[in-house]
Specification:
The complex is a heterodimer of chains A (661) and B (297). Chain A has helices spanning 2-7, 17-42, 87-99, 101-106, 111-117, 141-159, 192-211, 216-220, 227-230, 235-262, 290-326, 334-340, 346-372, 394-397, 412-446, 453-465, 468-478, 484-491, 505-534, 537-545, 550-578, 581-587, 611-620, 626-648; strands at residues 50-57, 118-122, 131-138, 175-183, 272-275, 282-285, 599-600, 603-604. Chain A has 661 residues and is an alpha+beta fold. In chain A, the strands form 3 sheets. A 4-stranded antiparallel beta sheet of chain A has the order 2-3-1-4. In chain A, strands 5-6 form a two-stranded antiparallel sheet. A two-stranded antiparallel ribbon of chain A has the order 7-8. Chain B is mostly helical. Chain B folds into 2 domains: 2-76, no CATH class; 84-296, MetI-like fold (Orthogonal Bundle). Chain B is 75% helix and 0% strand. Chain B has helices spanning 2-17, 20-53, 73-79, 83-114, 120-131, 138-148, 156-166, 173-180, 184-192, 197-208, 210-226, 229-235, 244-251, 257-281, 283-296. The radius of gyration of chain B is 25 Å and the shape is globular. Classes of the chains: A alpha+beta (661), B mainly alpha (297).
């Protein structure tokens, strides 16, 4: 393909290239001007709401009207627009809103929508709580004024209604003050300058690309994707490009731009719950969802990259078609294109699904979770009821200072260090005990003259066949305080008290490693059997003739050969063991609890916890500190990547993969 | 470690006193003793769990193994519990995952083994790096995505299948290693005869790939059959969406273990038997896959 491209000369231009580029700049400027014009004059302008304020003040000093509305601490905070739990104190006020149902009808409003636009406030300096402010916000100032007035009157009548607010008589009428429009509508909507810049960048890209194309078909393809192919009879390719352009513009205008705009803040509008009367039906006004904003924001960025790549392909295919045409050759038809998908381009067909799956279900979640480390996403700030937001590097800066709820506990980093140390220790022992014992068992079974090789192998392999959650959970219960092992030992009179297999830190760590041998030996036995048989027999033969004993044969021939061949396996096995969730979680659940360890949102680390199980516990338990789990995840990645980098390049068996073919 | 040293170094000393044959017999006897001990240790938990599943007199953990009263009560109880639902869930998940995952893995590994294209090396490097991230992290977002699609809790089965299958392309190493060993000259000959690349795959390579196909099917079946973590997360305490691992794990929780311990044993037996039988029948292919995969890294 590329050879063809280079083989033919590019067609001549009538004007020099510089002229094309200059023309492109003119087009860009025109585009910017057009955008500016559209933003200023054609696109409907959006305004922020006009806010109309009214104050109601109880004049009678003997009677503190708001007293009924104070919260337990004597503060008047309850007067803010309310969560459902505050409905008892809010009920009379909200009733006022309902009573104005004709207002709702007049302005085509629902109750929830109206409540959304009325903010009950109070003067913070006024500790007697005699003043209530009612801010009504509507885009139409007249509506704001009308509703504001009516609500203030209504509130006044409620506060003087003794059936609702029994108390000392009110001698004087309350003061009602209309402040009028305290905030005039402000032009919001699309910011013209931003749009002009965006239009400029896109236009620059498109027209500059255009300037470098020759022939009207190829120039037009810069605007109408696929045109170069379509106009030359390559209907399939052309239509696909064009379809993609339609989808891309549709998505970006419909959703993409919206998500991108919210990405920097991760949402500003909170979800609110209201009840008009105490215990009444809940009215929910849905706000932003930080999680979705982050998710779809990331997706949109991915999509934009895909758009840029497809655009590039579109231009490239156009040029290719042009060159083939000028060389007088025939262009590929749609049928041939399809055929090439099972032939020359077969790898694309085969990879499409797996790569798409990996992108969506592996890469995207990883990027997302890395980003979460820079937010405060947790059970409390779940993105719906409480929006979460970006916190920059705070989570990383606080590595050293993150402390747990209790006093005298270790910092995050100290506990992380301890768990990391155990994780590495565990990975080391789990890998090498299995490796050497597995090799030893394999050698024993394979020894000449041993009968029943197949039987022994089959028995060992049972631990692979039986799901780990059964075998490990059962074995874990066997070693319980009142499990079979302890009962047996006590019945035999060998011990007096139950051994603390899972209760004591050292015992638990030791037991875990031992039981892991039970799980791991069979794999290693299988793996090493094949390799052991590959060691040339004459090596041993000549070693024996030279008088080497079996131990020497093992250390001089078997072991070096094995290490050479299984080097990469040992490395992946080590990193795999670092993340060996099943064995630890099913056997000990991470326990016994580490005393004085850092507790993350109510989750404390255990003595056998690996980083991965700790991360899991933080994710599912307590306050769900996702951001902290994410930070741990990133640190785990760094550690594993570092080990892999350091070891992999030093392995002697870095074989060339083409060797076999 | 010390075992190796002892048995290995004890042999030459004996040689001086006895003939070669005699020393081998002693050595072999020691090995037999060792292997039989190991076999017993390996079998004990499995024998125990089967024995306890037939215990009728009590349902909690006891200090003895052989039941005083034998019976099928625990098994009968299973059929009146959610276990049947869990079992069906697990089976459906494992079956679909095993078929789809095998297709994906074979596509991926065959392509990476046979084709040389520009993105090949970068793709493999990216997947290597992705593999270093703890997969546990992705669970949170995958859970939310599945929840938005309505595929969690009671509908967990399709959600689980989707997630298991979608990212399975990453596990291409073993089968790529297998395809690497099939000589390329076979492909080239067929290509010269006018076969398309797709024809090369299903007419020439696939018939030669029975071992790796079976290996992939088997491991893809066993994965979901015993998966706990993700299944627990996605079913989110909804019994109707659990698989056997999650359900049985819950039976061993503090508040249930005294009532459900023997039922756990019975359930464990029912879960383990089919997959063990399957495994034993296909053991040969599994060994080939594991051995090949480990050597090539």
């Amino acid at each position: 393909m590329t050879n063809q491209e280079r083989g033919t000369q590019a067609p001549k231009r009538k004007l020099p290239l510089i002229a094309h580029i200059l023309l492109a700049q003119v087009a860009v400027v025109l585009c910017c001007l057009l955008t500016w014009y559209l933003c200023e004059n054609v696109v409907q302008k959006e305004y922020s709401d006009a806010t109309y304020r009214t104050e109601v003040e109880m004049i009678d000093n003997n009677y503190n009207a708001m007293g009924y509305l104070k919260d337990a601490n004597g503060k008047i905070a309850a007067l803010q627009y309310a969560p459902v739990s505050d409905a008892i104190t809010k009920a009379p006020l909200y009733q006022a809103v309902v009573d104005e149902m004709d207002l709702l009808n007049q302005h085509n409003l629902t109750v929830g929508r109206l409540i959304d636009r009325v903010k009950w406030g109070y003067d913070e300096a006024d500790t007697t709580g005699r003043t209530i402010t009612i801010d009504v916000s509507f885009s139409d100032p007249a509506v704001a004024e009308e509703i504001g007035n009516k609500l203030a009157e209504k509130l006044n009548s409620i506060l003087t209604d003794k059936s609702k607010f029994p108390g000392p008589p009110i001698n004087q009428p309350n003061r009602i003050e209309h402040y009028g429009l305290i905030q005039n509508p402000v032009r919001t909507g699309p910011n013209t300058l931003v749009w002009v810049i965006i239009a400029g960048i896109i236009a620059e890209g498109v027209f500059l690309t255009m300037a470098f194309q020759t022939g009207w078909k190829n120039k037009l393809t810069c605007i109408i994707m696929g045109f170069a192919n379509l106009s030359r009879g390559q209907v399939l390719r052309g239509l696909l490009f064009f379809l993609f352009e339609v989808v891309a513009i549709g998505y970006m205008v419909g959703w993409g731009v919206g998500w991108l705009q919210k990405l920097p803040t991760l949402g500003t509008v909170k979800t609110e719950h209201y009840a008009l009367v105490a215990g009444g039906q809940e009215i929910v006004s849905y706000g932003d969802d930080s999680f979705k904003i982050l998710l779809y924001g990331v997706l949109t960025i991915f999509f934009i990259l895909a758009v840029i790549y497809t655009y590039y392909q579109n231009v490239k295919q156009g040029r290719l078609a042009q060159k083939i045409e000028e060389a007088g050759k025939r262009l590929k038809s749609g049928r041939e294109d399809l055929r090439s998908l099972v032939d020359d381009q077969f790898h694309k067909t085969l990879l499409a699904l797996p790569v798409a799956g990996i992108t969506v279900f592996t890469i995207m979640p990883i990027i997302f979770m890395v980003l979460v480390a820079f937010t405060n996403y947790s059970g409390t700030f779940d993105g719906k009821e409480n929006l979460f937001h970006w916190v920059g590097l705070d989570n990383f800066n606080q590595l050293l200072t993150w402390t747990s709820n209790g006093s005298g506990n270790k910092t995050f980093m100290a506990t992380f260090g301890e768990i990391l140390a155990w994780t590495l220790m565990w990975a080391f022992f789990a890998t090498f005990t299995n490796y050497f014992l597995g090799m030893f068992v394999a050698m024993a079974i394979n020894k000449k003259g041993i009968k029943g090789k197949k039987l022994f192998r089959t028995i060992l392999v049972m631990t692979i066949a039986i799901p780990q959650f059964i075998s490990l959970l059962y074995v874990s219960k066997m070693f319980d305080k009142n499990g079979i092992v302890n009962s047996f030992l006590m019945n035999m009179g060998w011990i007096e008290r139950a051994l603390p297999f899972w209760e004591d830190a050292t015992w638990a760590r030791f037991t875990v490693i031992i039981i892991n041998i039970w799980i791991g030996i069979p794999y290693l036995m299988l793996i090493t059997t094949g390799i052991l048989m590959n060691i040339p027999a004459d090596l041993y033969e000549s070693a024996r003739i030279d008088g080497a004993n079996p131990w020497q044969q093992y250390t001089r021939i078997t072991l070096p050969y094995m290490l050479f061949v299984t080097g990469p396996y040992l490395l992946t096995s080590f990193t795999g063991n670092m993340n060996n969730f099943n064995v630890i979680y099913l056997l000990t659940g991470g326990g016994p609890t580490k005393l004085g360890a850092y507790s993350a949102g109510g989750v404390s680390a255990g003595n056998t916890d690996l980083l991965i199980t700790w991360l899991f516990k933080i994710t599912i338990g307590g306050d769900h500190l996702y951001y902290q789990a994410s930070v741990i995840g990133i640190l785990v990645f760094l550690v594993v990547a570092l080990i892999t980098l350091l070891v992999y390049s030093r392995l002697p068996s870095n074989k060339n993969e083409e060797d076999f073919q | 470690m010390s075992n190796i040293a002892n048995t290995a170094s004890s042999q030459p000393k004996m040689k001086k006193h006895m003939g070669l044959k005699a020393s081998r017999t002693v050595g072999n006897t020691l090995i037999y003793i060792l292997l039989i001990t190991i076999s017993i240790i390996w079998l004990i938990p499995f024998v125990f769990i089967v024995l306890q599943s037939f215990r009728v007199e009590s349902t909690h953990q006891v200090g003895y193994v052989v039941p005083q009263v034998w019976g099928f009560k625990n098994y009968a109880d299973l059929f009146n519990s959610n276990f049947v639902k869990w079992y069906v869930n697990t089976f459906v998940t494992a079956l679909f995952t095993c078929i789809l995952q095998t297709l994906i893995v074979l596509c991926m590994s065959y392509t990476l083994s046979r084709f040389r294209f520009k993105m090949r090396k970068p793709l493999m490097k990216i997947m290597l790096i992705l593999g270093l991230f703890p997969g546990m992290l992705s669970m949170i977002i995958l859970y939310r995505v599945l929840k938005d699609l309505g595929l969690t809790q009671a509908n967990a089965v399709p959600g689980l299948i989707l997630v298991y299958v979608a990212s399975s392309g990453m596990g291409y190493y073993v089968s790529k290693g297998f395809f690497d060993t099939i000589p390329k000259s076979l492909d080239e000959a067929a290509r010269i005869d006018g076969a398309t690349r797709a024809q090369v795959l299903y007419k020439i390579i696939l018939p030669l790939s029975k071992p790796i196909v079976i290996y992939t099917l088997l491991t893809a079946f066993m994965g979901p059959w015993g998966d706990y973590v993700f299944a627990a997360y996605v079913s989110n305490n909804t019994s109707a969406g659990m698989n056997v691992a999650v359900g049985l794990y819950n039976w061993l929780s503090q508040d249930q273990i005294n009532k459900k311990y023997t039922m756990f044993c019975a359930g464990g037996v029912l879960v383990a038997v089919p997959v063990t039988v399957l495994f034993m029948c296909l053991q040969r292919y599994y060994v080939e896959g594991v051995t090949g995969g480990a050597v090539k890294g």
